[in-house]
Amino acid sequence: MNILHIDCSPRSESHSRQLSAAVAHKLLEILPHAQIYRRDVGYKPIPHAGAAYATALSTPASLAAAGRSADALLLAEQLIQEVEYADVIVIGTPMNNFTVPSVLKAWIDQILRVSRTMKSSPAGKIGMLRDRPVFVCIASGGVFRGDRSNQPDFITPYLSAVLGCIGLKTVHYLPMQATAFLDESRAAALRSSLVATIQPEMVGLVHSSV
């Protein structure tokens, strides 16, 4: 069993980092023989897609000519293989201006690739990757879900759409909200309550593929 743990916050003690670490620890209790592989785009941001990458993906012919070994696609191929190797994925991210931070968007732009992780059909995009559980730990200074929500939620429908289009449909959201108003004891209690929602059956592998 392999767990891919991704963090997106630039702050070492951020709420999203602490929550994703607690989730990873919980998963190790459920899957004691699992190994964790880290991709920290908060501390080490990956580059945004450049001209060479955009050119390679611009047409089916240019993509076919580039192939997987082209320099422009090497990073994307590495990131895609990390996802393929994982049985469970944990993503810790802040909500930045109603949606994902740019470092997570850069990761998304590299792993969504036609003819590699998704294919087009008359009905829309079809995922080419095997489904697996994804736990998304979101920290927000405000409230975007539930009865007390006072701002729009663009982050969860967006992530559901982009992950779903490559085949990752089993997505669990753990929202840590109103962090701007939490002291450490209340934050710790909220983290514990969110982690407690993770049950063994939630990490069972999904073997079906599209």
From TrEMBL:
Subunit comment: Homodimer.
Family: Belongs to the azoreductase type 1 family.
Record's catalysed reaction(s): N,N-dimethyl-1,4-phenylenediamine + anthranilate + 2 NAD(+) = 2-(4-dimethylaminophenyl)diazenylbenzoate + 2 NADH + 2 H(+); 2 a quinone + NADH + H(+) = 2 a 1,4-benzosemiquinone + NAD(+)
The enzyme's E.C. designation: 1.6.5.-, 1.7.1.17
Pfam families, per database record: Flavodoxin_2
Summary of the function given for this chain in its UniProt record: Also exhibits azoreductase activity. Catalyzes the reductive cleavage of the azo bond in aromatic azo compounds to the corresponding amines. Quinone reductase that provides resistance to thiol-specific stress caused by electrophilic quinones.
First-tier enzyme category under EC: oxidoreductase
UniProt cross-references to SUPFAM superfamilies, sorted A to Z: Flavoproteins
Alphabetical keyword list: Flavoprotein, FMN, NAD, Oxidoreductase
Obligatory cofactor(s): FMN
Domain Flavodoxin-like fold, chain residue ranges per copy: 1-190
Name recorded for this polypeptide: FMN dependent NADH:quinone oxidoreductase
InterPro entries according to UniProt: Flavodoxin_fold, Flavoprotein-like_sf, FMN-dep_NADH:Q_OxRdtase_AzoR1, NADH:quinone_OxRdtase_FMN_depd
Lineage, highest ranks first: Bacteria, Pseudomonadati, Pseudomonadota, Betaproteobacteria, Burkholderiales
GO MF annotation terms: electron transfer activity; FMN binding; oxidoreductase activity, acting on NAD(P)H as acceptor; oxidoreductase activity, acting on NAD(P)H, quinone or similar compound as acceptor
Residues holding FMN: 9, 14-16
Keyword Signal among record annotations: no
Co-factor binding details: Binds 1 FMN per subunit.
